[in-house]
Write a structure and sequence with these properties.
single chain; alpha/beta; Rossmann fold; 2 domains; elongated; binds adenosine monophosphate
């Protein structure tokens, strides 16, 4: 296996762009996938965010398109020849950015289209001609419907994070899109997990695929410490604020189950003086971009997210992940904690678990095949809320009244925003999609190992 990008058969334009990114060597998924994709074969790859999978498909895809690219400015000479489908807007934006970066020395045009933003600039970009199109399925079908995109010349199809696209209920949209593509094309399917549904999709889309399977990047050196803090539901926020302050955490990603819960928690933490923001499907795209940018730049200390919104986010060296709510789907726990412990820097994944959460914790432990260590934080033991003094109780109830008034104001504002906000059909469709419950009756160590590599460990 080659230890250089040039050795994998990539052109000077691409190796130059890659070395400008500071990539010294190909990652395992890149070393395996790039030569196979360059040879024109279909690929079925088991790899998640963090493995370098995007460059793994984007680099050879760009090279293949460049071989028959056109320097002409005419839109007719730039039909969509590669289509990359992703489940979320954030992932689409990230993939689009990578395509632009890696393809900067090639005469290829790319565009990213997703819901939740004005469709007109996307229509204009498509009219100018696009060789590589990165899209979420719902908005792509909106464009198909209004005839702003034609897919009859697609030579390469990428289904990125295919498992998540199925979880989010995109299978029918995907089938509709597949029906619009030429039968003869190269297909690349990337997925972190392989359920029966993914295998069925792979069987129907891929022709004699080469299988590429890799552990997570830095799997050998990664360290994720997992810990459970038992706590009363009503005191979770207080405990979170305590942990952030006591540990002097500067960057923590907190998971909530619902958009409303994420919003409320971020607002409450902000009111208490912690720089917090939320990222979920009900926020506008500019709000989501701003929240993520602030978090990456260290302006936002606590980013509260839902599972769907966080999927595919690549945040370098994230030290702390907190499960404020446990996920309903145990596999999501594994995805969540996989956000930390990257790049060889140890990370910590903490779950705040109330009595109501016990059944969810049990299914997670079943999936992991082991019990997670419980550790009560002194002063936050379940059922041990400190009896409040009459003065403190009075202050608290005044605070709660103020909080309730604020919540009513927030609700009014957001309802007013909803009334005035013009949102596309696909944005609405995407926002309402929640991961379908999966069958997770049996513990599946193999699947977890594939998701995380073998080095995650509970605390001693
Ligand atoms: P991905 O799995 O595609 O989301 O990529 C994860 C991260 O790895 C991104 O921040 C990439 O910029 C980075 N990356 C991709 N390939 C390499 C490489 N060969 N060496 C170092 N970093 C890389």
């Amino acid at each position: 296996m080659s230890h250089s990008f040039a050795g994998l058969g990539l052109s000077a334009e691409l190796t130059r762009a890659v070395s400008e990114q500071g990539y010294a060597h190909p990652t395992p998924v890149q070393a395996q996938a790039i030569p196979v994709i360059l040879s024109g074969r279909d690929v079925l790859a088991g790899a998640q965010t963090g493995t370098g999978k995007t460059a793994g498909f984007a680099l050879p895809l760009l090279q293949r398109l460049a071989a028959h690219g056109s320097a002409s400015a005419s839109p007719a000479r730039h039909p969509v020849r590669a289509l990359i489908l992703t489940p979320t807007r954030e992932l689409a934006a990230q993939v689009g950015e990578s395509v632009r970066t890696y393809g900067r020395y090639l005469p290829l045009r790319s565009a990213v289209i997703y819901g939740g933003v004005n469709i007109n600039p996307q229509v204009q970009a498509l009219q100018r001609g696009v060789d590589v199109l990165v899209a979420t399925p719902g908005r792509l079908l909106d464009h198909v419907q209004q005839k702003s995109v034609h897919l009859g010349q697609v030579q390469i199809l990428v289904l990125d994070e295919a498992d998540r696209m199925l979880d989010m209920g995109f299978i029918r949209d995907i089938r509709r899109i597949l029906a619009l593509l030429p039968a003869k094309r190269q297909n690349l399917l990337f997925s972190a997990t392989f359920s029966e549904d993914i295998r069925k999709l792979a069987d129907s889309v891929l022709h004699d695929p080469v299988h590429v399977e890799v552990a997570r990047r830095n799997a050998d050196s990664e360290l994720v410490t997992q810990r459970v803090h038992p706590v009363d539901q009503a005191r979770k926020r207080e405990l979170l604020a305590h942990l952030v302050a006591a540990g002097n955490w500067q960057q923590v990603l907190v998971f909530c189950r619902t958009k409303h819960g994420a919003n409320r928690l971020a607002q409450q933490l902000s009111r208490e003086g912690l720089e917090a923001d939320a990222i979920h499907g009900n926020r506008s795209q500019p709000q989501r971009v701003r929240a993520l940018k602030g978090f990456k730049e260290g302006l936002v200390r606590v980013l509260v997210a839902t599972d769907v919104a966080s999927r595919g986010l690549d945040i370098e060296e994230l030290p702390h992940v907190v499960n404020f709510d446990l996920p309903h789907v145990p596999e999501d726990y594994v995805h969540r904690i996989g956000r930390t412990g990257r790049a060889g820097i140890s990370g910590e994944a903490i779950s705040l678990v109330s009595t109501e959460d016990q059944p969810l914790l049990a299914s997670i432990e079943k999936l992991l095949g082991r019990r997670l260590e419980r550790h009560s934080v002194p002063g936050f033991e379940p059922g041990k809320a400190l009896p409040a003094s009459p003065a403190a109780a009075r202050a608290r109830s005044a605070g709660e009244r103020k909080g309730a008034a604020q919540r009513t104001r927030d609700r009014r504002t957001s309802t007013a925003q909803d009334r005035t906000g013009r949102r596309s059909q696909s944005a609405k469709r995407q926002d309402h999609r929640q991961p379908a419950p999966r069958n997770h009756r049996r513990g599946n160590r193999k699947q977890v190992a594939a998701l995380l590599g073998s080095s995650t460990r509970p605390t001693q």
